[in-house]
Design brief:
The chain has 10 helices and 14 strands. The chain is α/β, with parallel strands linked by helices and 333 residues long. The protein folds into 2 domains: 62 residues, Alpha-Beta Plaits (2-Layer Sandwich), CATH 3.30.70; 250 residues, TIM Barrel, CATH 3.20.20.70. Bound molecules: phosphoenolpyruvate and manganese (II) ion. The site of phosphoenolpyruvate has 10 residues, from loops.
Length: 333
């Protein structure tokens, strides 16, 4: 249920109402906007008398929400959320370019790529240290050593680091990571979502391979309901009957998620297509559709990459694409 207060309600009257609502057994999420304050009531609202609340002199309107997601719902929070990572902002008009290799392979590799993507205008560095691979015989990532190499690359370039966490047991190792990535395969690892919801780190939450938008939003809800509101949604392609691409990029997810939620939405055209030459057109399509950023795989030597070489751009290709993305952003403004 959402309760929209009248403009300029006095703080003590507002607090009195909030205390009363809490006393009725519901959690109250307060969104103070420039003109209006909105109270999002989460929990069992069946005992609340909607008409009674509506009749209060400080209340403008009361609505029942049918969607099961509350914290990430735009109805509760009409303004875009801007997630901030150091000096980098994502959402609410701030566009963020995240780039780097699928996996961290060596100090030389990650530093070379980090410098190249920074030069091309990237805002953050990606790189997997813990890799969720389909085969147990494939490269599983450098794990803790990979995280250390990412920190060295951050110190060299100043780029904040984004890297995937697969297990709650690894959380202590991620203390000094800037953005926790939850991969497609872990989108519904609810214990992981709850645990990272208790941290204060921004989370990049990828859509699962075969998950609906509602399921993605419910996963964001897990993180937010645990107290962490800094969630970035990521569309990375879903399984369809497409036979020539790794996945199918659901471009319409971008405007639909924006409609449903106030959280920033970014797109990963690399995993969506699996083919490097398809990454630029899909990145441009996602930008034109209103994405708040892009996460793109870049490798200095794609044919020899230990993971996802076929979909990795070379640094010069990334630089060329970044330029085109800036032009599209300018054209949209
Ligand atoms: C990745 O970003 O390297 C990755 C494994 O992505 P996804 O979880 O989207 O497959
Ligand atoms: Mn990858």
């Amino acid at each position: 249920m959402i309760v929209v207060l009248k403009p300029k309600v006095e703080v003590d009257k507002r607090e009195h109402l909030i205390d009363w609502l809490k006393g009725m057994g519901v959690d109250v999420h307060v969104s103070v906007g420039e003109y209006q304050t909105i109270l999002g009531l989460v929990g069992d609202t069946t005992r609340l008398d909607m008409d009674l609340i509506d009749s209060l002199d400080i209340v403008d309107s009361v609505k029942r929400i049918t969607e099961p997601f509350k914290c990430c719902n735009r109805k509760f929070h009409p303004d875009d959320t801007v997630v901030q990572v150091g000096d980098v902002k994502i959402g609410g008009g701030y566009f963020c370019m995240i780039a780097g290799p699928c996996s961290v392979e060596s100090e030389e590799q990650i530093i070379t790529v980090a410098k190249a993507v920074k030069e091309a205008g990237a805002d953050m560095l990606r790189g997997g240290a813990f890799k969720p691979r389909t085969s147990p015989y494939d490269f599983q990532g450098l794990k803790a050593d990979g995280l250390e190499l990412l920190k060295i690359a951050r110190a060299e370039t100043g780029l904040p680091i984004v890297t995937e966490i697969m297990s709650t047991a690894d959380l202590p190792l991620f203390e000094d990571v800037d953005v926790l990535q939850v991969g497609a395969r872990n989108m519904q690892n609810f214990d992981l979502l709850k645990e990272i919801g208790m941290t204060n780190k921004p989370v990049l939450l990828k859509r699962g391979l075969a998950n609906s938008l509602k399921e993605l939003l419910m996963s964001a809800e897990y993180i937010m309901a645990s107290g962490n509101e800094q969630v970035i949604l990521c569309e990375r392609g879903i399984r369809t009957f497409s036979d020539y691409t790794r996945n199918t990029l659901d471009v319409s997810a971008v405007p639909m998620l924006h409609e449903l939620s106030h959280l920033p939405v970014i797109v990963d055209p690399s995993h969506a297509t699996g083919i490097a030459r398809l990454v630029p057109p899909m990145a441009m399509a996602a930008t034109a559709a209103g994405a708040d950023g892009l996460i793109i795989e870049v490798h200095n030597d794609p044919p020899h990459a230990l993971c996802d070489g076929a979909q990795s751009l070379r640094p010069e290709e990334y630089a060329d694409l970044a330029e085109k993305i800036r032009s599209i952003r300018t054209a949209l403004a």
